[in-house]
């Protein structure tokens, strides 16, 4: 999976997870530095399960953002 595809996948999946629009999640990821982290830690993160990623994002963003 390319970096762009992975970042898009993460944004869309997290938007569904927290029941928000993907544009809101993109802004949240960008403001928090998570978008940059997805790029720098791509090799480590892209092989993780969806459940792990959702937990990781929740923790990184300071808990449940629903």
Q: pLDDT average, as an integer? A: 93
Q: Point out poorly predicted stretches.
A: none
N to C succession of SSEs: HHHHH
Estimate the global geometry from the Cα principal axes: globular
Radius of gyration, whole Å: 11 Å
Query: What summary fits the major beta sheet?
Result: none
Counted beta strands: 0
Number of helices: 5
- Helix/strand-derived category reads mainly alpha
> Approximately how much helix is present in the residues?
over 70%
> How far is the first residue's CA from the last residue's CA?
28 Å
Count of domains: 1
Strand content: under 5%
Note down, in words, how this protein is organized.
- With about 70 residues, this protein is an all-alpha fold.
- The chain has one domain (about 5-60).
- Helix content is about 75%, strand content about 0%.
- The protein is built from five helices and no strands.
- The chain has helices at about 5-20, 20-30, 35-40, 40-45, 50-60.
- The longest helix has 16 residues, at about 5-20.
- The radius of gyration is 11 Å and the shape is globular.
- The chain starts with a helix and ends in a 6-residue tail after the last helix.
- The mean pLDDT is about 95.
Write a compact overview of the structure shown.
With 66 residues, the chain is an all-alpha fold.
Topology of this protein?
Layout: H1 3-18, H2 22-32, H3 34-40, H4 42-45, H5 50-60
Helix pairs in contact: 1-2, 1-5
């Amino acid at each position: 999976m390319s970096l762009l595809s992975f970042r898009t996948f993460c944004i869309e999946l997290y938007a569904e997870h927290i029941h928000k629009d993907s544009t809101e999640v993109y802004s949240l990821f960008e403001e928090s530095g998570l978008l940059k982290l997805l790029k720098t830690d791509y090799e480590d993160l892209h092989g993780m399960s969806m459940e792990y990623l959702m937990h990781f994002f929740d923790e990184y963003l300071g808990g449940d953002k629903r």
